[in-house]
Design a protein that fits this description.
By secondary structure, this protein is an alpha/beta fold. Helices cover 35% and strands 14% of the residues. The protein has a single domain, classed as 3-Layer(aba) Sandwich (Rossmann fold), CATH 3.40.50. It has a 5-stranded mixed β-sheet with strand order 3-2-4-1-5, with helices on both faces. Helix 1 crosses helix 2.
Length: 191
Amino acid sequence: MEIIFVRHGEGEHSAQIPESYQLTDPGLTEHGIQEAKQLTSTLPLSETDAVIASPTRRTLQTAQLWCAGTNAERYVHPAIGPRQFPIRYDFTTLPCDTTFEPQRLTKLFGDFLLPNDVPAYLWLQGINTVPALLFNKWAEQFIAWCKRLNKDKVYLVTHDGTIAAYMEYLQGTKVARTAQLSQSGWVPLSV
């Protein structure tokens, strides 16, 4: 199985940093919408693919626009929600990184499936500020869940800090902050 990490399109929370980090539930900008639509030609999807999005509006919008008109399976999973990188233990989740709970996800993004083996606290707590040991536990369980989907390619629409944290976990080496992706970038990894 190949996992391809895809960064969400440009979000409203990146407009006037750091003030815009205080936005709650930011979506995509017009430019971000165009970036998401461009994925349809850059990374075309088929029924043999799965797209899994983080439970934030900007990632779900990116995935929804990209998946439009395809038969790719669509999921949302809290184990690829926003994650600060590098981890700081004095950090709290910013309003722009607050995730949707299952009821709201079902109401707003009903075309995405939710895994049924995720405990309620993970939907509420997320992975943003959890210690590395707990993140590694969830990363291991998430990768195993992805493998059970039996897809050739699994695309993860997520955030740059989350991508960097998973790259460190999967590759077993430190990742520099400068190695993070630009808007709507992607990186493939075989697992």
